[in-house]
Amino acid sequence: MRHRVCVVGLAVAAALAAATPSAAVTPEQAPLGSIGALGSRDGVQRWHVSPTKDRLYRVLFAADGVLFASSYAPCSDEGYASPNLDQVVAFDAATGRALWRSAPGLGADLWGGRGIVVVSALSESSSSVRVMGLDARSGRRLWSFEGAPVSALGSPDLLFSREVRASPGTQTFVFRARDQRTGKVRWTVRVESDTDVQLVGATASVVVLSDGQVLDARSGRRRYQLSALAGAYSILIAGSTIVYDTLGVPTVTGVDANTGKQRWQIPGAWTGATADGSGSVFLTLFEKGTSSGGPPVTTHLVAIDATTGVTRWSIPADAGFGEQLFAGHGIVVQPVGADLSVLDAATGQRLWTTAPPPYHTEVSVALTSKLAIMSGDAGSCGD
């Protein structure tokens, strides 16, 4: 998983005593910039970390028993915040105990999994980007290099990067795959195009580009071309299935990632989508009409089998269902209007509902096997 945050310096400190769990606070009482961990099945608070006068927190993600959060300065009276004060803080996800924090730094990309967290930040000595792999629980540096920011995109053992080299009339996109454990390059692929080409996602066997090229994850060689992706509105990788939607004739299509053959297709277009790693795709689906006139809109939150396209369950939704959707470890979390609902991923049954932390733009959520950990996001200064 990859998150754009204004955090991280080029060095980390090991243990720290600050940012320890505080007294129990219900989500609706929690001040902006605090972190609350609730039982994923019962909604009962397990731990809470309060912000300080000059430091707020934003949940990023949880992996391997570690919660990663951004620690940032609140907006000043003039509406500004200093990104040079922002940091990444690692917490023990089960207890909320702080493990380590990065040194203050500049804007960075953050990814984590398999015991490693990868940070990317502007180098202190030049305008290049320094990418580092750190031990998730200690912050100890394992490897580093100067180059483009990386993300796993769903791959179990690779990291991918993209660089753009412009020339008159065209652009060259350089894609690299690196070993997650060492940071060393496995392969490099160059694509020339007069339109933008992005990395969309990856599985253990393939890497998907936005222009429809599907590459072999081991070698970088092109396996096949899936032209429909070039006109897709949104693309999601769910297990071994590439899921995409188109808006001309609103449809959602599932394609075998290994062969490019269509597995299923259903009517509708989504505003929010996620996969939980257990074979389900969850969509906030507009099934009829459009949101801008025409026939009445029918909106559902649906769980679809990623391999067959069969609907596992469907819940009618009101206009409060939007783009934010989180799933994993047997639950689905959906902010709905003034509430935050947690559903059983297998049945769609509502487990519990709570008022989310105070926020200006959105709520950030990270899931573990036992906890739903959340924070209120203040958004950008001046919003």
How would you characterize this protein structure?
This protein has 383 residues and is an all-beta fold. It has a single domain (2-377), classed as Methylamine Dehydrogenase, Chain H. Helix content is 0%, strand content 52%. The strands form 8 sheets. A 5-stranded antiparallel sheet has the order 1-9-10-11-12, with no helix packed on it. A hairpin with a 2-residue loop joins strand 5 (56-63) and strand 6. It starts with a strand and ends in a 6-residue tail after the last strand.
Structural class, judged by helices and strands?
A: mainly beta
CATH-level-2 architecture = 7 Propeller
Q: Tell me the quaternary state.
A: single chain
Q: Reading side by side through the largest sheet, how are the strands ordered?
A: 1-9-10-11-12
Largest sheet: 5 strands, antiparallel
Q: Which spans have pLDDT < 50 for at least 5 consecutive residues? A: 1-18
Number of domains: 1
Distance from first to last alpha carbon: 26 Å
Which percent range describes the beta-strand content? over 45%
Percent in helix: under 10%
